[in-house]
Write a structure and sequence with these properties.
The chain is mainly α and 104 residues long. It is 85% helix and 0% strand.
């Protein structure tokens, strides 16, 4: 009864809050505030999940590009080694044709 009278006569019932008592209106208001806060947190959580999903997709794309680049580099290394071996063989063959030159 006191809490209802105070709610009707005052704009913000600090006395009841300080005493640990809440009127029905105060509880409804607090519940509404909590529901609004929950909605904001849900939206923030949803936004963060979207950001994480986008970042994961970007990471996967970068990993694929990295793997493709690494495969291309490895292929180039193999081709370079083969060309070098062919050049070494050709040099040895040419050196063996020159009199007095010994291939090593």
């Amino acid at each position: 009864m006191l809490s209802e009278a105070l709610v009707q006569k005052t704009k913000k019932n600090k006395f009841l809050l300080n005493m640990g008592l809440r009127s029905k209106a105060t509880c409804v208001s607090a519940e509404r505030d909590l529901e609004e806060e929950l909605e904001v947190e849900k939206q923030t959580s949803s936004d963060l999940r979207e950001v994480i999903k986008t970042q994961q997709e970007q990471i996967e794309e970068m990993m694929k590009k990295f793997q493709d680049a690494e495969a291309a580099r490895a292929k180039q290394d193999e081709e370079s080694k083969k060309r070098q071996a062919d050049i070494d063989t050709l040099i040895k063959s040419l050196m063996s044709m020159i009199p007095g030159c010994q291939a090593t």
